[in-house]
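This week, think about what follows.
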Amino acid sequence: MWSRHFFLAFMGLAAGLAVSAGTFALIISLKIIPRMIGTGHSAGHIFLFENATMIGGVCGCIATVYPNLPLPFGRPFLILYGLFSGVQVGCLLMALAEIMSVFPIMFRRFGLKTGLQWVIASMAVGKTMGGLWYFYRQIGQ
């Protein structure tokens, strides 16, 4: 009986380490953190960015593994968490799209030469509105 529990715990830990290593390797290979530091001109706070990324990964893992864990911080924390999660997903998607040269190919095919910032902003607004519609209509339930 104990050997079965030990084996399951070991497999869960090994799978979690593999997934987290892949996630952080993707974040590192896309150079998301150095790009945010360079854009914000905050090279003096590099350890703060790295620690925040690691703490966010650990907290996200805990929230995923224990979804019924009560959080005593209330609605303001939930709103802040949703905002930061959206920013993280947006940074990850934009960096991945940039690495794969999605935007230059799309702009060339559509013949767009001006207004590129409006296209990208409208894509972000559309993603936000889609997410809000998803939660408003409770589509996932």
